């Protein structure tokens, strides 16, 4: 196995160069796309138009406007309490995945419906499939253990013409499994992605919510309201992200020929050494750590493959080469 490669940390003020969400939001343009957003726009302490990011309804309206303006999504809604994702950061993961594929393909991003992506934990918001299909034409399979999330994501994928039947959503019937039960033996994916629950308990998740609320200046309730929401399975899992990623690595080894790249976001630096050790024991042939930055926050995802050089070349020729 090669040593994990950490890419240079990008400028903290910049998103990925292809990310559509650079700079400040144009709230006038977004309100024109989704008039409901105007209800939540008001001058901030500096006299600039803004929204209250501590208000879940405002954040949801902003997301609806962004999805319509930039991705052609006309209908998007979530049940109360479900995770409302910060779209610019989600888009960064997709764009860096495209770069990862390009790095494996002589600098050319594989595009179109022939490229299949597995989104582990698609949630009710279906954000990664929306961005990945609209930006690169990829087909997606999203999985989740929550029947409500599966139902809502299916509805989003079905009612929006912009997605054109490119997104399939499957229920993961076993809460203790990640790939098992949802990937068929004859299926192949060019890349998998995941934003795992990183807290180890509900108490830890709530403590984190309180810190965020305090930073937003809204920590005046007995139980703070999360502006981005989140169900238990979206926020925490027994053992936290370290245990979750250990399970993911173990399961991925059993599907080593079904996928070119396995990837997952990793929230905590302390998780990395254990994940590297697991992947080394499992004989991954390539492991990479890709850094991303959104504002003052630096995040990362880890990518690994089990394919030999000969298998990688065969994969590229079969799945990524331009069709005559």
UniProtKB/TrEMBL annotation:
Enzyme Commission designation: 2.1.1.181
MF (Gene Ontology): 23S rRNA (adenine(1618)-N(6))-methyltransferase activity
Membership in a protein family: Belongs to the methyltransferase superfamily. METTL16/RlmF family.
Cellular compartments annotated: Cytoplasm
Function: Specifically methylates the adenine in position 1618 of 23S rRNA.
One of the GO biological process terms: rRNA base methylation
Reaction catalyzed: adenosine(1618) in 23S rRNA + S-adenosyl-L-methionine = N(6)-methyladenosine(1618) in 23S rRNA + S-adenosyl-L-homocysteine + H(+)
Xref: InterPro entries: METTL16/RlmF, rRNA_lsu_MeTfrase_F, SAM-dependent_MTases_sf
Alphabetically ordered keywords of this record: Cytoplasm, Methyltransferase, rRNA processing, S-adenosyl-L-methionine, Transferase
Keyword Cytoplasm recorded: yes
Enzyme class: transferase
Cellular compartments per GO CC: cytoplasm
Main location: cytoplasm
Name of the molecule in the record: Ribosomal RNA large subunit methyltransferase F
UniProt lineage: Bacteria, Pseudomonadati, Bacteroidota, Cytophagia, Cytophagales
């Amino acid at each position: 196995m090669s040593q994990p490669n950490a890419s240079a940390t990008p400028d903290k003020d910049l998103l990925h160069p292809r990310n559509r969400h650079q700079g400040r939001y144009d709230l006038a343009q977004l309100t024109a796309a989704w008039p409901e957003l105007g209800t939540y726009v008001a001058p901030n302490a500096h006299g600039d138009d803004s929204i209250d990011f501590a208000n879940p309804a405002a954040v949801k309206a902003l997301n609806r406007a962004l999805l319509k303006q930039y991705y052609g999504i006309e209908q998007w809604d979530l049940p109360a309490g479900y995770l409302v994702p910060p779209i610019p950061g989600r888009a960064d993961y997709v764009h860096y995945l495209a770069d990862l594929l390009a790095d494996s393909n002589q600098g050319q991003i594989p595009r179109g419906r022939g490229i299949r992506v597995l989104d582990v934990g698609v949630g009710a918001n279906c954000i990664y499939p929306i961005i990945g299909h609209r930006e690169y034409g990829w087909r997606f399979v999203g999985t989740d253990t929550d029947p409500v999330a599966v139902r809502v994501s299916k509805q989003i994928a079905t009612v929006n013409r912009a997605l054109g039947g490119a997104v399939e959503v499957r229920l993961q019937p076993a809460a203790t499994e990640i790939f098992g039960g949802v990937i068929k033996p004859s299926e192949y994916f060019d890349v998998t992605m995941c934003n795992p629950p990183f807290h180890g308990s509900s108490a830890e998740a709530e403590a984190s919510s309180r810190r965020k609320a305090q930073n937003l200046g809204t920590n005046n309730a007995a139980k703070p309201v999360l502006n981005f929401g989140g169900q238990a399975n979206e926020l925490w899992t027994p053992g936290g992200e370290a245990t979750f990623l250990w399970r993911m690595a173990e399961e991925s080894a059993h599907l080593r020929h079904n996928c070119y790249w396995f990837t997952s976001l990793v929230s905590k630096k302390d998780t990395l050494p254990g994940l590297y050790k697991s992947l080394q024991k499992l004989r991954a042939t390539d492991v990479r750590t890709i850094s991303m930055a959104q504002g003052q926050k630096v995040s990362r995802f880890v990518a690994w493959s089990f394919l030999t050089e000969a298998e990688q070349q065969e994969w590229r020729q079969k799945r990524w080469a331009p069709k005559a």
